[in-house]
Amino acid sequence: MSKRSFYDEMQDATGGVRAHYKAYADWLVEMPEDRLAQKRAEADALFHRHGITFAVYGEKPDTERLIPFDVVPRIIPAHEWAVLERGLKQRVKALNAFLRDIYHEQAILKNGPIPAEQVLGNAQYRKVMQGVKVPGDVYAHIAGVDVVRAGEGEYYVLEDNLRVPSGVSYMLENRKMMMRLFPRLFSRYRVAPVDRYPDILLNMLRSVAPLGVTDPTVVVLTPGAYNSAYFEHAFLAQQMGVELVEGQDMFVEADHVYMRTTRGPKRVDVIYRRVDDDFLDPLAFRADSVLGVPGLLAAYQAGGVTLANAIGSGVADDKSIYPYVPDMVRFYLDEEPILHNVPTRMCRKPEDLEYVLANLADLVVKEVHGAGGYGMLVGPAATKAEIEDFRDKLKQHPERYIAQPTLALSSCPTFVEAGLAPRHVDLRPFVLSGEEMQLMPGGLTRVALREGSLVVNSSQGGGTKDTWVLEA
């Protein structure tokens, strides 16, 4: 067998099955492919029946799609997860310390490695948050950290998502689907459960209520039914047993937030908001926003309500700040980072720009504010015309881009139209930070269903699969 150029999570370099996949590989031998195809069709029908869809921006408002679900799970052994868990907790702890610092003392900008203009001039930095005290000094209550494997199987953090990270509902629904489709398969493994996530999320949100509130009321704030992640907003509200609200359902009075109910106004103490900063308060940010609550910022600044995540958290997940996260770990925690960053060139630096322009065909170039797989160039998969177009963009606005080597993402066996085949994957674990920090074992595995593709985003043709963390 020829040597693979990427790490295969099920098979080693000789074609042998890795120990943690052995029981599953034996089960696969017993399972005919037509049976797997039947189970995949059953899953699609159930997802559609339950309304587990997503909308794609730029398409008609009523256009919704199923996120393709792969019936082959991704399996992570306990010892690997233990390292990942420590590394993720360390990283999010440092990011929260960074957010507190830049809105208060700004020590890392005065005495550390991060240029002040990179933070204070960032579009996601909110001056209105300077000096604002937030409960427990927690800014990023829910963090979705995208992790990939490359090389000989080393884990790398691809990006941090701290604004309104999505995807956890698919993690939960994927597990429910696998247990429904293949109940006997779970008897071969001790798979760590994920179903307690809504309870843990609610307890975390209650733990960061404003000072003096002993029985906090929590709500989920959604932009509305046309948002691409509306299913998730409704799902999480239902699973936590709290109200799903839109901006028009709430008002501010005397630095407190209230929601309108059939029994009259009810005070709201914690808002799990799935609305971007710019649209939260038309009196403070975008005046044309109809999604937010007038006066919400003033109530937040006064300590009358908690927002999760905090206003201004987005500066810490901006791709221009990403290269400095290992420095944050060292600066705030006095520790060495457990998880690697992907080596990153910052195109605002003349020497980095020169290198990137000379090697565009081999690099991945990303907009610092981009998301969802948009606004990026994957050099090895791009045409000459696309490369030249990006070259012009880089020359005009180098400060808007970073560049990274094209990682050979690890692959997992995936059931596609042609049968079982390796496809590239990433992983988004979810880190919850309140009085304590907790992770669900696993996270959302996204898979690039197109052969050879490295883009796993659902809006770009990717799918999802259940993630099994084995218990020790």
Automatic annotation (TrEMBL):
Residues 73-448 form the Circularly permuted ATP-grasp type domain. InterPro entries: ATP-dep_Glu-Cys_Ligase-2, CP_ATPgrasp_2, UCP005522. This is Circularly permuted type 2 ATP-grasp protein. It comes from Azoarcus taiwanensis.
